[in-house]
Design goal:
alpha/beta; 2 domains
Length: 694
């Protein structure tokens, strides 16, 4: 019984959700605001009075506390920083001084050892929000989230809690604006003491060590809270200024804010707070790893994508020169047998047989093998009454068995294997067999074109056939590692088919399996772009998904079956080291990374500058459009479908990589898959009637 793997979709969704959340966490943490320019606002009257350490009294009134005389509370914002915080701690320890560090939660999570060192050496921690967010500009829930997240990370990292809060962009009490005052009142209502400053050194401007010392020196005998920074830029002047302040104020005590004001401290860290802190820090670390991995992945994906386009164009130009030589050949090889396996092909079979019978190459023997059709496929062919057309009926045994039946009945030394929904150009067979003038050639791939390209889905498949399949075949031809002669139009020597034992039914991609076997047997496989046939492609997303799933799964089966050719010499080694490597990179691994790339793109739309994103996207689209235009020109096609190319990247690409994910999971689980037949509409004939491309 066939198992249909479903849990992998849940797993994929969960992985992508975690990835997106972690990336967003990383983006949020690293989206640090700059000082910026603010519109001046009136100060909050309640904040003008009192000292710099402010909280609420029992009657909910604002209370301000000042430092005792000859007491300095040195405070440092924005850390901990791996370069500057240790230097400041060393200076403080040398002078036996204590200080208060208002830390960013993100930096505590990033450098937990520094936070623990601060506490271990007797200093005090205060909340400075998680991401240096301006609380005055945030809604209430964001204000509380910034503060609570920082408190949680401090608790989980150091085992202590803090009552102290200093909002970013704050200064002295008389500089507090009305929005800042509201944010401070809200924090005070939640039990925090808002620590502003008496002396703002503005050391972040780097005014010089002497200027910082002057700004941080209180009037004779007075106490003060001094604002400094231990992160956010070059703090060389700050480190030197702290050393001079500590040495140049004899008789002063340098204490933490809580010690200087004899304030009670929190004791203990609740388990829930600690767990929340570990979760927040873990998510931040995961986001950092994910962002780094995504950066590498995006670079690799872009490099591979661009390299593939450039290789396709380069080899296509070289391939043109080779095919020009073959165009002038008109060799004759006697009777050519065309084998058409057919199962319920009543919609297209008459068009297929008529197009083959109208070939400019003669004589042509046509063998239609009806593989147990439940419709009138065989009867339609018989009633055509065309000379040289034979019908063989057999019980349903699958496409490989039908092909082998036709091969055994063939009289020609060259055999063309054709799908029952394909319509040939009049000169297709003549052009298809010309490469057999080279006796080393064992198989030839023709140029398959999309017949029903009227809708958007048809246009996308048309572009895929022209850009992807046909450009790839030109490259494979020159590299002598063609992995697939398509079932729609391919020719083989009878001797070649005998060498490989006919068409195998071991995989769902019998054409790929057969082609790989032909190369490993020592025969060359080439591409003839002038041998044109039109095929009907799926007209609905569901049909397309089933078809591509079969192709992808069958290709993986064929790759695994022929995996030993990687270590072989000669033609087999070229197939393994060139062809299989290419398929693995661009048809398996790259599509498997595509969901993560799309998540990274969504993340970039939120956190990265839109002009940069649009420029990158537009550049890549332009490169693809130029390649597509070149491919269309090579195939003699109109440029009209190019307008749908950007949409193809947004919709069609996602469907294709989800198919690869599904097929990969099924292959890893060892599921046995069956053929999924596409519903035919008979539109293949429209291309032959209306096309003027040749």
């Amino acid at each position: 019984m066939t198992r249909t793997p479903r849990t992998h979709w849940v797993l994929l969704g969960a992985v992508l959700t975690v990835l997106f959340v972690s990336l967003c966490a990383n983006g949020y943490v690293n989206h640090i605001g700059a000082e910026g320019v603010r519109t001046p606002e009136p100060a909050a009257p309640a904040m003008r009075a009192g000292g710099p350490v402010q909280g609420l009294t029992a009657d909910r009134a604002t209370r301000g506390l000042r430092m005792p005389p000859r007491t300095l509370a040195l405070t440092f914002d924005d850390g901990p920083d791996p370069r500057w915080t240790p230097q400041i701690l060393d200076v403080l320890r040398r002078h036996h001084a204590r200080a208060t560090f208002f830390v960013l939660g993100a930096n505590v999570a990033r450098y937990p050892d520094l936070a623990r060192r601060i506490v271990a050496e007797g200093h005090e921690l205060g909340v400075h929000t998680y991401t240096h967010a301006d609380l005055a500009t945030l809604p209430a829930w964001r204000q509380r989230a910034e503060i609570a997240a920082t408190q949680s990370v401090i608790a989980s990292t150091t085992g202590v809690r803090t009552r102290l809060l200093r909002p970013p962009y704050s200064s002295t009490p008389d500089a507090v604006t009305a929005p800042q005052g509201s944010a401070l009142d809200r924090a005070a209502a939640d039990g925090y003491l808002n620590v502003l400053t008496d002396l703002d050194t503005e050391d972040w401007r780097r005014p010089g060590t002497a200027a910082i010392v002057r700004a941080g020196t209180p009037a004779a005998g007075r106490g003060a809270v001094v604002m400094l920074h231990d992160s956010g830029g070059d703090r060389t002047q700050t480190v030197a200024a702290v050393d001079r302040l500590l040495a140049g104020l004899p008789g002063y005590r340098f204490e933490t804010v809580s010690t200087a004001l004899d304030l009670p401290r929190f004791t203990g860290t609740p388990a829930a707070l600690t767990l929340r802190g570990h979760a927040i820090a873990g998510l931040q670390r995961l986001g950092g790893y994910a962002a780094a991995a995504m950066g590498v992945l995006l670079i690799v994906a872009v490099v591979l994508g661009v390299a593939r386009l450039l290789l396709q164009v380069y080899y296509s130009r070289r391939h043109i020169r080779r095919t020009r030589i073959r165009r002038h050949r008109d060799a004759h090889f006697g009777t050519v047998t065309v084998v058409v396996p057919a199962y319920n092909e009543s919609a297209n079979i008459a068009n297929t047989v008529r197009s083959l019978r109208s070939s400019t190459y003669q004589p042509v023997e046509i063998i239609v093998v009806d593989d147990g059709s439940s419709d009138d496929t065989a009867g339609i062919v018989e009633r055509l009454g065309l000379p040289g057309v034979h019908v063989i009926r057999q019980a349903n045994a699958g496409k490989p068995a039908a092909l082998n039946t036709g091969i055994r009945a063939a009289s020609g030394d060259l055999l063309v294997l054709v799908d029952g929904d394909t319509v040939f150009a009049p000169d297709a067979i003549r052009r298809l067999v010309q490469p057999f003038a080279d006796l080393s050639v064992g198989a030839v791939s023709g140029n398959t074109k999309v017949a029903n390209r009227g809708g958007v889905l048809g246009r996308w498949q048309h572009l895929e056939y022209v850009i992807g399949f046909n450009l790839d075949r030109r490259m494979f031809d020159l590299a002598r590692c063609m992995p697939t002669v398509p079932g729609a139009i391919g020719a083989f020597r009878r001797e070649t088919l005998a060498d490989v034992g006919g068409v195998s039914d071991a995989t769902l991609a019998e054409d790929t399996d057969l082609t790989m076997a032909v190369i490993r047997a020592g025969w060359r496989v080439v591409y003839e772009p002038d041998a044109v046939a039109w095929t009907e492609v799926p007209g609905t997303v569901a049909q397309l998904r089933r078809q591509r799933y079969r192709w992808c799964y069958g290709t993986m089966q064929a790759m695994w079956k022929h995996r030993r050719c990687v270590i072989e010499r000669g033609d087999g080694g070229r197939l393994g080291r060139r062809g299989l490597t290419y398929l693995l990179l661009f048809q398996v691994l790259l599509p498997l990374t595509a969901p993560a790339v799309d998540v990274a793109a969504a993340y970039g739309m939120i956190f990265l500058p839109w002009p940069q994103l649009l420029a990158t996207w537009a550049g890549f689209q332009l490169l693809q459009a130029l390649t597509a235009a070149y491919a269309l020109r090579l195939d003699g096609e109109r440029y009209g479908p190019l307008w749908s190319l950007p949409l193809q990247q947004i919709v069609y690409r996602q469907l294709m990589y989800l198919v690869v994910v599904h097929a990969t999971v099924a292959a890893l689980l060892g599921d046995r898959q069956r053929w999924h037949r596409m519903h035919r509409t008979g539109q293949a004939d429209l291309a032959l009637v209306s096309s003027d491309s040749r």
